[in-house]
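stuck on this fold:
=====
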Amino acid sequence: MQVKHQLLAHCQQYVNQRLETITQAQAAIRQALDEETKSTAGDKHETGRAMMQLEQEKLSAQLAEVQQLQQVLGRIQLENLPSRIGEGNLVLTGQGNYFIAISAGKLELDGKLYYLVSLASPIGLALAHRKAGEQFVFRGESISILAVF
């Protein structure tokens, strides 16, 4: 199914953009730390340096998260998936279309809206291991699974 390949490519692009943003921010912080010289306002200098190091730690945590997303995308197989919902499935329901991969928002393709969700998201957990024809309740609404690809 061509749509699944497009959705997976969008997820990969999403992760690559996040990775590029993080890498650029890390480079900017490294450059700022390298250019920082000891000033006469010692406490102010140390505070600025500490703030940059905190930002560097946050970026490192974000980088680890992006690397996890890359691992998830790397293990997704789009062909010969079991009929039970898992990573790589495209799920059509009465309330929306879901591509199970990573949480990357929504995407419109050919006039249809698709939600890119992870298996660990609330809707991903509700869909997990179900199959076409089943119904489930999510946030007080009964949802029918119309098809699983």
Notes: The mean pLDDT is 91. The chain has two domains: 2-75, 90-148.
